[in-house]
Amino acid sequence: SVDCSFSRGVCDWKQDADDDFDWNPADQDRGDGYYMAVPAFMGHKKDMGRLKLLLTDLKPKSSYCLIFSYRIAGERVGKLRVFLANKKPAPVWEQNKGKDERWRTGKIEIFQGAETTNSVTFESERGKGKTGEIGVDNVLLISGLCPED
């Protein structure tokens, strides 16, 4: 498994230069490192911020599981989507509201064909809300299928 979390991860993260705003580091409540966040007041409605995880050395014709923590806190704060490079431009995962302010776990199966996925993009779309944030943390890439809960 590869630890791509932000505080101590070994992965290569890039801010997209063609989007409307950047994701920002935010301190964990527990004081244990930081996560990446988009506050509700960033940008205008429908603006996008993209954070890209560059993947190298994924083996063709094999399966991986991307596991991450996410939080969508606040009324109408926006949408969080995940895209895989080399796939059609539709998101492979999307969430637009949280039941509460708690962190939840997202899982995405990545099946490699002959062409390997070379990046995963976390995209935040700004909503109407003025308070809250969208956050992502603890990004792990493990080989094999995603474990059952």
TrEMBL record:
InterPro entries: ConA-like_dom_sf (IPR013320), MAM_dom (IPR000998), MAM_domain-containing (IPR051560). One of its GO terms (cellular component) is membrane. Pfam families: MAM. SUPFAM superfamilies: Concanavalin A-like lectins/glucanases (SSF49899). Gene3D superfamilies: 2.60.120.200. Residues 2-148 form the MAM domain. This is EGFL6 protein. It comes from Pelecanoides urinatrix.
